[in-house]
Amino acid sequence: MEQKNHIQETEKLLGRLDDLHASMEVPYGKSRDEIWEAMQRKMTAEVKPVRLWIHPVRMRFLWAAATLALLMGLGALLRFYHHTIRTAPGQMVTVTLPDKSTAVLNAQSKLTWYPLWWTFSKKVVFTGEAFFKGPHGKRFSVKSARGTVAVLGTSFDIYARKDNYRVVCFTGKVRVTSRTKNRIILTPGEKAEVNTMGEITFSKKIKTSNYNAWTDHQFVFTATPIASVLAEMVRRYNVKIDLEKAVSESYTGNFSAEIPVEQALNIVCKPFGLTFVKVDNQHFIIR
Asked: Which tens digit of pLDDT belongs to each residue from 208-226?
């Protein structure tokens, strides 16, 4: 009897729990499949573009800034894009510039020009020694450390190294301007030398062929200090020459630059009672 009563009370309790569960359910009018289809439509729906509005004044400013940046970049490219030719010891090279002018570069020389800027400024930067020849009526300038040569349709030789700056006019006219703004105009057969102070020394009625003889592989020296003669031989032969003692004499003479270096050294040293020792094929000592 007691067990029967316990079963009846349990059934009543379960019935109350079913009623409570039914009262807590949230009614929803769509099935699970309908909800899934709706979610897929939303995920695959096309995303509409968002339009960004910029004030017309601001837009014009942005276009102007972009255009200015483009022009500045283009200007920098035109102005600074360059070609540079360097010659090694013992090397000679002929270069053709944008206006068809030519430059024959001697050993250990450097020539730089700006091809994209040539229309606005016909200028080259140069160190070393070169023989320039330009078409009649063509003008350009050659800038070096000690001065600038303005070319007025001509041919000329320029020597621009640390120890000397020299310009010799062969044809036409050239204007030489030193760093200190001293100026002189040269005509054929005239020479200008610029010292470290910017002072110009002028010579006329010179033998011009002595100054571009190197283009025909010839050494020609006129009252040239021994140290300068040896420096030219070092460039030409690509060797090292040490002078053990100071020599104040100057050398005058000419000889082929195609003879062996030992023979050339003998020609230069013998008149002054100097001798040389061959350390190896690339090194000589003068005593």
From this structure: 999 999 999 999 999 999 9
The DSSP line for 111-131 is EEE-GGGTTT--EEEEEEEEE
How open is the CA angle 207-256-220, to the nearest 5 degrees? 25
* pTM over 0.85, yes/no: no
Which pLDDT band, with edges at 50, 70 and 90, does 26 fall under?
A: very low
DSSP secondary structure code for residue 26 in this structure: P
**What is the extent of the structural domain holding 262?**
217-286
More confident residue, 16 or 250: 250
Handedness of CA 59, 60, 61, 65 (dihedral sign): positive
Give the CA distances from residue 206 to residues 14, 167, 187, 209, in Å, rounded to whole numbers and listed in that order: 133, 12, 11, 9
| CA 38 – CA 161 distance, rounded (Å) | 86
Does residue 29 lie within any of the structural domains? Answer: no
DSSP 198: S
Residue 155 belongs to a domain: yes
Q: Quick check: 84 and 109 in contact, CB under 8 A?
A: no
Report the number of distinct structural domains present in the chain: 2
